[in-house]
Amino acid sequence: QSFASYKHEQVIDFEKLSRNEIFLIHGKTGSGKTSILDAITYVLYGESSGGSRGGLESMRCRNYGANSIPTEIEFIFEVKGKQYKFVRRVYDRVKRTGKVETESEYNCYYFEDGQFIPFFDNPTKTKVNEKAVEIIGLTYNQFMQVVILPQGKFESFLVASSKEKEEILNTLFQIEDW
Hints:
The protein has a four-stranded antiparallel sheet with strand order 1-2-3-4, covered by helices on one side. The termini are far apart. It is of the alpha+beta class. The radius of gyration is 18 Å and the shape is globular. 31% of the residues lie in helices and 22% in strands.
């Protein structure tokens, strides 16, 4: 909610799309494709899908009086039969002096016994980002090269050095033993 141009909560159920194991996000310019990808990469890695849009604070919806609504991204997904939830939240807090300060919250959870349990009591951006890499098995750069393939950037995987390609393919297909 309150992310990019979306003031109100938006829910995307990827489970319906993933029945065929692969799907394409497509649409006309301005239809919100990049916003979906930005939300996923922000919640997992703390960076936009383009890497140049700044922090989550810069993606806050400022339209339609949305300043008072916290920007929140929640992403629930499954890896190797286990469910995880990552959450990032940014909101404005008015200090006693009247100055408005932007605050951030982030954490990640694993699902056990019917509930999500936080990995960290005192989460930091670094810990949450590192947990995403550990769970998914891809760094932000690898995720960008093989999962998202930003428009016009597929060439970057094709022209990557042999060593970079080897690292990505080893991670994806777990072939380091071979």
